[in-house]
Give the backbone structure.
Amino acid sequence: TDLTIPSRQLSRSAAMLGRLCLALAAVSVASASKWPLRAKHGDDVPASFDCAARKLAYTYGKQQIPRMGKFESLYYALDLNSADCSAEMTGGEPELRATANDTVPPNALYVHPSGRDTNPGTITHPLKSIQLAMDQVASRSGGAPKTVVLRGGTHYITDTIYLRSKHSNITVMAYPGEKAVVSGGVKLNVQWTKAPNDINNTYVANIKGQVDEVPGLILNNVYATRARYPNIPGGLETSCGYGCMVDGSDATWTPPNFNKYGN
């Protein structure tokens, strides 16, 4: 089960991986420019070093989070399918934590993406809100196991899931044999069409009224690259923050000179 719940703790290995992947991913988005980017001595760094570092980051990432299997998202974030630095995507499929052999306690509360919060939380009448299920289980007294079971599918959440001391000793699991994903995103209903003027490999969709902004886009569980200049490969999203990007209709774009201000 891929379960994302905000937490104040981050393991040292995860933090190291995050910093390493972020740094190396930043390198990968401009493979035509030598690392370090915008440095005067950048051309003196062999391209083979950049490629080897990205391959090492891919190997290290799979070792740190083995349940991700071939870690497809990391592979593409590091741009390892590019012509100038390619590597084989190796490993198995992401691990399903819940197997058909797992058992569910008889007093568990069930949550389903299409459930209702007026339901009692049984397997036939599940809840919809993970937060509500957590709160109801936490309020139980006695020594019986406290379990919240997520049925298969994507559980979209609009608010942070808050876990306090009262939520201690609660088990959150996927229903045996199913894959439950918790997402803070918004599911869009879109119809893709070719961009005007027959721009190569560019598609557009009207999402008016569904969301106010799109800080990131995921298609079929893979991060997609939104249209911008300069383009970046591998679906890796980078941004200088909210409100700092200039809309394409508000300016005439010219190729940037990354060495204009030196290192």
